[in-house]
Amino acid sequence: xxxxxxxxxxxxxxxxxxxxxxxxxxxxxxxxxxxxxxxxxxxxxxxxxxxxxxxxxxxxxxxxxxxxxxxxxxxxxxxxxxxxxxxxxxxxxxxxxxxxxxxxxxxxxxxxxxxxxxxxxxxxxxxxxxxxxxxxxxxxxxxxxxxxxxxxxxxxxxxxxxxxxxxxxxxxxxxxxxxxxxxxxxxxxxxxxxxxxxxxxxxxxxxxxxxxxxxxxxxxxxxxxxxxxxxxxxxxxxxxxxxxxxxxxxxxxxxxxxxxxxxxxxxxxxxxxxxxxxxxxxxxxxxxxxxxxxxxxxxxxxxxxxxxxxxxxxxxxxxxxxxxxxxxxxxxxxxxxxxxxxxxxxxxxxxxxxxxxxxxxxxxxxxxxxxxxxxxxxxxxxxxxxxxxxxxxxxxxxxxxxxxxxxxxxxxxxxxxxxxxxxxxxxxxxxxxxxxxxxxxxxxxxxxxxxxxxxxxxxxxxxxxxxxxxxxxxxxxxxxxxxxxxxxxxxxxxxxxxxxxxxxxx
Length: 506
Ligand SMILES: Nc1ncnc2c1ncn2[C@@H]1O[C@H](COP(=O)(O)OP(=O)(O)OP(=O)(O)O)[C@@H](O)[C@H]1O
Ligand SMILES: [Mg+2]
Hints:
With 506 residues, this protein is of the alpha/beta class.
């Protein structure tokens, strides 16, 4: 990624925090932090999962109250006690789990709470005109009459940004905005963010993608375990220096060594001419015992759909799947789990977790059978096993009885992995298993995958991160527009071959 010519903004601070602390029970989310956000700067927050990034973002937005410390806006001391008050000051957030009314139109969502009235009544016409003028002013367009629920994630994110702009935002907090975007959408967001900053809006940007942080930011603040390590000009940092600052350790090798697979090993999964109309066609491949197979391709190439079909979550229109020598005749998740498959789904919010339930429930629920004996459920063994698996997957938590919703985003992702690993599956299907997790946790997830392969368990790794695919796979499958465009092994696996195959039918 090319580095832009971004330097320090010589502007005054819009928001300043002095000696700010915030705890949740025994968890110290922020400890005595000093930081300021200047007018018109792009200021990134980086740190491992649970470091305190989102907490700081939410404090700016009035969603959390400080335990101690002072807040200044335009040099004057204020206390921001509610999101409503923050919005009045011009401090607005774009959340990762978008907070839109999906059954309403784009105009309704953008103008929500700011409708223009004519006499006593809301004027739909004037409200729409105002929204259109904001779109025009910022050169950011979404079909004003579209129903929000029918839009792509990227378009919905634009609606949230327009809503912020319509409320005259002076500072916008973006919390992991690109985690769910395709690469061209990410670039669009970057240029939008840069143009907003050029027009004087302050941007607080939270991201685990260090390349993007270095590319777009003026300054970066590093957090580690609630402590602010340093705030520095982005041009004075490198990926290496950021990782060292975030983890407190030298970088080391991210990927473990992957053992070679013998050509004569038994076949665990065999997929023949698998087809789901409009999603993917005639897919055939095999996975051997202990093999790690990477499944690459652009967003929308049919990767996730294929993975879900193998797991029994979707029914194929045509073709066959055999697992451990037996043909699968029934597409059913419970069936697949019984046969020895497990899946780490892509979206933790919508597919994976019971947010209002505890860690232990989320992790062990599908596998309670393991702890059953004639004496009933062995709770002690269940707890020990869950604690052990949380340690292995480096879940940072304050007890396995706490609700999953209070974990940081990346730690929620790790819970999904912990659950899948619990079942000791013969085949683990991992769909973007490291999305949103920090570099330390990534490393431990990679080590876990390598360990699974060491004991003869196979892995299908679906990922948009080419480095991850290259670093982890014995073999790589690439999909393009619903077709298998390449199968690569050994030295044929590299960035160029994968990218070429990914764009083959585009
Ligand atoms: N509402 C809450 N209740 C209890 N604990 C919380 C709450 N919000 C955050 N925490 C805890 O505070 C710490 C910091 O969390 P925060 O969400 O700020 O991390 P983060 O840096 O955004 O991590 P991630 O990269 O995983 O999103 C974590 O240990 C988290 O579990
Ligand atoms: Mg967070």
